[in-house]
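Posting this for the archive.
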Amino acid sequence: MGLFRRHRRRDDTAGAGTDQEAPPASVTTVGIPRVAGWDGELPVRSTGVTVVLVSRSDRHDRLPPMVVAARTAFGPEADVRAVAYVADASPLGPVPTGVPWVLQEPVDGIGSAVNAALAGGVRAVVVVVDSTVGVTEQDLQVLAESGGRGVAQARVWLPDGAARHGARLLRPGAMPWTDDAASVVPGPDGLRAVVLAARATGPGPAVFAADQPALALPGRALVPAPCLPDERMTLSAWSRAVADRAGGDVTPVWALGRSAEAGRTVDAAVVDAFAAWRGRAADRPSDGPAAVVAGLPLPPWGARPVAPASRSRAVDDGELSWAVKIAAPAGPEGDGWGDVHFAAELAGALERLGQRVRVDRRDAHVRDDDGSDDVTLVVRGLDRVPPNPASVNLLWVISHPDDVADTELRSFDAAFAAGPVWAAAASTRSEVPVRTLLQATDPAVFHPSTPQGPDAGRVVFVGSTRGTARPVVTDAVALGADLRVHGPGWRDLVPEGLRGAESLSRADVAASYASARVVLNDHWPDMASGGFVSNRVFDVLASGGVVVTDPVDGLEDVLDVPTLAVARSRDDLAALLDPARSWPTAAERTAIAARVAAEHSFDARARVLLDAARAGRARLRA
């Protein structure tokens, strides 16, 4: 039976943690094969035990006595197999003789090692043990007996006293919890006593998945192990898949010690693995906690682990505590960002619905006290923000859609996008629903008013240069339009007589839109192709103004009003900016503004988001 192999093209690194080892910087895994599975059905005998000994490439010294223990436990003809793997960029250590190696060279990660060992077929029960877990013949026999009834993992203690008794799914869609806290006083005597005492207690309560490489599984239910860079998630995802196929959960049995544990590396593939469990029921024992608290983000993706916590207040879906995350930096540097105004107006709308809202800028995306947040809403601009597993997590993509990976979409309880074209494509691609939620306006700020001031009757553009030429402005200048440009950076691009203020208040922007004959608008290419209509369009229309914009895919499907026109060329723009061109009357514009205010206000968007938050909370409580 052949193996599916892939070769790594880049290095993996691991984070620090309890008894976790940092990788030697000089060692790489380039060229180390990855074994993704096997061809066809796995041959499985009806009797017997297959012992798989997996060993990190520099930790082979304990393998010979483990081989002896396996042959003592199951007879001299026992099916014992060993595979070396590279993890945490481990170096290649001495290779002992007398070990039944499946392959001459190490493979990439513990998942590959498992797949390589199993590919030739197995006996009725498979026992998998890492060389960092010292085992005797009795240990192997107990594991094998348990594996005949379903998936089982030995309860494991680390040298610092940390307990690993399997993973619990405290929060569906988030990383499974495995206890990192020390449960005994470190030291050989303390650990030995705890391990011996645990062996006398019998099997423990079933858990969601395994988290340590000391487990037994029924051969009939085996599937290939995932090739993830994180050891714990590799074992959790694999054992859960096997348990699902076998029908049941994972049973903690017996007790063993482990000399060291791999570091944690949580990349996009790892996030996808646990995000796939979003639809499963949470592990809630009757005497257990009813809430979770989130830890610090783990590299490189930034997913946050969870731990059980006591609920500090009663569940109340009326008044929820919201944290709105935006990309703007703190302080004056970020005060002028559009995200700041967007978030403030959205927060006001949520507060009018009886919600409590705080806006977190870039420096507060992760807070020490965010365990009290009921809802985390990421207004996605420049920054990817890790979900907070202690809350319901909503994602609203309003700009830079090309920066949003499918994994990010899968990480949230509900995802929205301000571009319907992109939302439809992302839904298909990521296999999670991405709902359209257009950008919005605040009618309390943007509403019809009497034209006045220097912008009255002129062509107006409000915005910065964004560090690049903006064709709609360049074309308007070239056409000799009666243009007035507000915003920073235009000194060398627009003649002095056409330049207005470098900064306008929101009230002044609204007055300019209501007074102008035409307001110009444009989009980044990725936003235009994804159907992301700029919030400037909604602001101008709500002000009773006329807006001329560049093409946006699907624009006519979401906004079909006579005060919105598209310029597809400079000739189109010239015709639209002609002072002799007629536009709807003031009364007609006021009616359009009222319609836009009703359908595209932040109040309307807030109602959709609140419904989604309540639905998410209901699902998590189910």
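The first strand starts at residue 3 and ends at 7. The mean pLDDT is 91.
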